[in-house]
Amino acid sequence: MTVEVPKKRITEYSKIAPEDVEELIELTKDLKGLKVVHVNATAYGGGVAELLYTLVPLMEDLGLNAKWEVLEAPNEFYNVTKKFHNALQGAAIDITDEEFKLYEQINMENAKKLDLDADVVIIHDPQPALIPVFKEGNYIWRCHIDTSSPDKDVWERLTQKMKGYYKKALFHLNDYINSPFDNIGIEFPPSIDPLSEKNRTLSKIELSDIINRYSIDVEKPIITVVARFDPWKDLFGAIDVYREIKKVLDVQLLIVSAMAKDDPEGWTFFEDVLRYAGTDKDILFLTDLKGVSHKEVNAIQTISTLGLHTATKEGFGLVISEMMWKGNPVVARPVGGIKLQVDDGINGYLRYDIKQLAEAAIDIIKDSEKRKTFGINAKETVRKKFLTTSHLKRYLKVISEVANETI
User: Fold this and answer.
1) Do 137 and 235 belong to one domain?
2) Per-position b or e across 243-265, b if 16+ CB within 10 A of its CB
3) Residues 177, 303 share a domain
């Protein structure tokens, strides 16, 4: 299925990142008309879809023929690929021969029916990773998850099928690059779009409307977690941190999420977290089930006192950069790509233990000057390193390299 994307103009980013825009225009002079196709699992829910909604139209505006294809698959397929996801992040999970056969079959079917006739095809994450086995082309694998210590058996079984079909493999961190991608792996952090509905500056009227709609008490400090309902995000831990803080300060915990199509187990985990939170009126669950979309997430992050992220595994965690872009400090566990974003003691705190996370949050909430300084530093970190324009430059350089190899 081809995803329709909105029109975007690279010149709109000139005020935020003028040097990046100039370099992007120069980079694409020799790439005009080049067809690039992105393939992923879903058009909605999760960071990959959000990235593509910005990157694809900007590639088009720069003169590339950029398209975005999404897999067509039954729920059983996504149950299997969720197991792949967890195994690649280190969980000990057995994937049966039947499950692997279903995985191969869906990849084969999609290789035949998706529009993949292009100069370069970028495959995102494990779900469509075997498409190159069934369709010739110039492929790049873009891995968005933490593969630093994958389940050995699952990793080898998957990557041995992938071996030899990819020209480049892109990972958030060098720590995630494993055999057989040692020679083609590249450190490749993602980005946020500062002009998207999720990150643009909102008016006071827009903020007030959302505050009232969801009965958020702005008189109390607001601790916000933005995360999918996934065991790796440890939302139980986030609630535990809140409860520790609550012993000292009267605060609210906002848990913000969307239910992704490619994550069936998310519903079960959602119910478990709801039960764990109990009837505490200062814990608010704000999801797409209540009409929370990108604008609402933006508003909630904007009015937050700080961001909290308790994931025990995290490929990158774009929600960290989103929160920091709003000028807010973040308290998080030092895992995966979070370590690239949060500079301990500069724009937030990195702690692992529940009580230490709570103490760090209390320190920021109580010290308004520190909170302000951390917030300024947080926004500047994102501006320099994690905006769309920087990400797009990295993509164009890799695309050019792969395309030129075959000319």
Assistant:
1) no
2) ebbbeeeebbbbbbbbbbbbbbb
3) no
Asked whether residue 198 is assigned to any structural domain, the reply reads no
pLDDT of residue 261 exceeding 60, the answer is: no
- Supply the range of the domain harboring residue 63: 10-191+387-405
Give ∠ CA 280-282-288 in degrees, rounded to 5: 95
User: Is residue 206 within a helix (H) or strand (E), and if so which, with residue range?
Assistant: helix 204-213
**1 falls within a domain:** no
Tens digits of residue pLDDT in 138-166: 999 999 989 999 999 999 999 999 999 99
Give the C-alpha distances (Å, rounded to integers) separating 131 from 5, 75, 83: 23, 18, 18
For 274, what's the count of Cα atoms within 13 Å in the CB-facing half-sphere? 10
CATH code of residue 133: 3.40.50.2000
List C-alpha distances in Å: 105 to 73, 74, 134: 10, 12, 10
Q: Do 40 and 129 share a structural domain?
A: yes
- How many other CB atoms are there within 10 angstroms of residue 364's CB atom? 22
Give residue 44's pLDDT: 76
Q: What is the pLDDT of residues 352-385, one digit of tens each?
A: 999 999 999 999 999 999 999 999 999 999 998 9
Averaged pLDDT for residues 93-111? 95
Cβ-contact 42, 5 below 8 angstroms:
no
Question: Same domain, yes or no, for 226 and 181?
Answer: no
Burial class of 182 by CB neighbour count within 10 A (0 to 12, 13 to 18, 19+): exposed
Same domain, 171 and 250: no
CB 360 within 8 A of CB 367: no
Do 45 and 180 fall into the same domain?
Answer: yes
313 band by pLDDT with thresholds 50, 70 and 90: confident
For residue 5, being part of any structural domain is answered with no
- Of 93, 380, 45, 12, nearest to 228 by C-alpha is 45
Q: Is residue 335 domain-resident?
A: yes
Q: How many domains does the chain have?
A: 2
Do 93 and 227 fall into the same domain? Answer: no
The whole-angstrom separation of Cα 195 and Cα 382 is: 13
Q: Of 39-48, 54-63, 189-198, which gets the smallest average pLDDT? A: 39-48
